[in-house]
Amino acid sequence: MQRTLSEKIFVMNYIPWRLTKSWKCLACGNCCKRYAVKLTWKEHRKIAKFWPDKVRIKNKKPYLGRRIDGRCEFLSGNLCHLQMLNMKPFACKIWPFRVLLKPDKMDKNFDGLYQTNNKEYFVYLNPKCIGINKGNPIDFKETIEEIINLWNGLKKEQYYSTNRVCLSQLFSTQKQGEKICLKC
After folding, report:
1. Inter-residue contact 128 to 96 (CB < 8 Å)
2. What average pLDDT values come out for the chain (184 residues) when binned by 10 residues?
3. What contacts 55, CB < 8 A, 6 or more positions away?
4. Predicted TM-score (pTM) of this structure
5. Would 133 be classed as within a structural domain?
6. 79 with 169: CB under 8 angstroms?
7. In this structure, is residue 35 part of a structural domain?
8. Burial of 106 (0-12, 13-18, 19+ CB in 10 A)
């Protein structure tokens, strides 16, 4: 029996990349408002060096702090101050994507399979992201390549996997010589 896309989403919780047309960060800020961001210990130390009151340790795991309303401590409007300072955590960089070396147990058709550089990856998207199917389909494979390179630690900068309006604001601010606000 062939399942519909909505049935697959319900069962899997993640959408295989081949079942979507595109993706684009809309800078809606929803991911920063809904999810606790798990940090690596290296990210925790780097951020805590400047903002010790904005990182947390819960169950012996480091996280970005959250405000009373649940939003990330570093969210200002819908923009991330950490991205502007080149300190954006790995978990934030790859969201809403999920990269695996084996298929999700519900991905019977291998719809998440993505092959690059003679390697196989399984790439999925969180269905709660409103940017799914909102981007340019031509950029989608570039986005997936960038996510895989970020996941493998081969790349740190983002272009396709972040909102380009935010990037252009960052670069125009830096070109004008203005200081970026460090208080959030």
Report:
1. yes
2. 46 84 91 90 95 94 92 86 88 94 92 96 95 92 95 88 65 46 35
3. 39, 44, 47, 48, 62, 63, 64, 65
4. 0.80
5. yes
6. yes
7. no
8. middle
